[in-house]
Amino acid sequence: MAELKTARLTRTNAGPGRLLIAVYLLFAIAATSRAGLQIATKFDQAPLAYLLSALAAAVYIVAAVGLARAGHAGRRVALACCTVELVGVVGVGAFSLARPDLFPDETVWSGFGSGYGYIPLVLPILGLAWLWKTR
Amino acid sequence: MTATGSPVDGLLATVAIVLSLLVAAWALVAALRHRAPDRVQLVGLGVLELALLGLTVLAALALGGGERPGEPGAFFGYLVTLVCLPPLAAVLARMEPTRWGSAIVCAVCLVTPVVVVRLQQTWEVLGG
Predict the structure, then answer these.
(1) Membrane-spanning residues where (chain B) (predicted)?
(2) Per the CB < 8 Å rule, is A25 touching B108?
(3) Which of A63, A76, B25, B33 is most buried as measured by Cβ atoms within 10 A of its Cβ?
(4) Which chain B residues have a beta carbon less than 8 Å from that of A21?
């Protein structure tokens, strides 16, 4: 059991990693549909917020693929995505508090992801921890 | 328009929400006990999917009857996402026959009620 566990833990796409990928998938779907809808119907109202939503959506998709691919390239992609996410959610979160006028509409990352139960803030940290653990 | 009520806000929606939370609780217990997704979880996901398809039929009937959601784009987005959630959980659970498969079922079944509520909100908007 123990050796089976260590063998599995070197892969990013098994065990807890699969749960992480599932949550990334859910956020990819949520962010993609939200950004798609916002850009298609009311882009002029808050272009910055909607472009950031689209960026977040792309990052979630690429992160999910990176984690699922598991290999060295996948790990590197996932590492980059999780870092961008963490910087994004903290940066946009701080910015949306400091300059609310720039964000007349919500993004996935505004208020540190408060509209999504702060999961956008926790997710990249879990992702980085998981990559560290399976290194 | 006489208030016939929202098609996605009724007994069936409540059943779907409660059922989803029950499956989530069952899956959480399984995950905590190091159990892979069991038959109860998969059957639960199947019944949940039936309830969600029932909601879709109710929404389709209401649309056929001339009613319209407050935010059509968001409403249909949520509806499509919603009916995809249980199958997604089932597929991922089959791929991961460990406690983490149960954890995936739990996570998806916690998200499903949120999407049902958002679905109801995007139908209501116009009525305020």
Answers:
(1) 12-30, 42-63, 75-93, 100-119
(2) no
(3) A63
(4) 92
Which residues in chain A touch residue B84, judged by CB atoms under 8 angstroms apart?
Answer: 29
Collapsing DSSP to helix, strand or coil, B112 comes out as helix
Question: A127: Cβ–Cβ under 8 A, 6 or more apart, which residues?
Answer: A20, A24, A63, A67, A78, A81, A82, A85
Scored b (16 or more CB within 10 A) or e, B53-87 reads: eebbebbeebeeeeeebebeebbbbbbebbeebbe
Burial class (CB in 10 A: 0-12, 13-18, 19+), B37: buried
Q: Which fold has domain B11-124?
A: Four Helix Bundle (Hemerythrin (Met), subunit A) (1.20.120)
Q: What is the pTM of this model?
A: 0.88
B111 near A CB under 8 A: yes
Q: How far is A88 from chain B (nearest CA, A)?
A: 23
Using the Cβ of B28 and the Cβ atoms of chain A, whether some distance falls under 8 Å is answered with no
**In this predicted complex, what is the ipTM?**
0.85
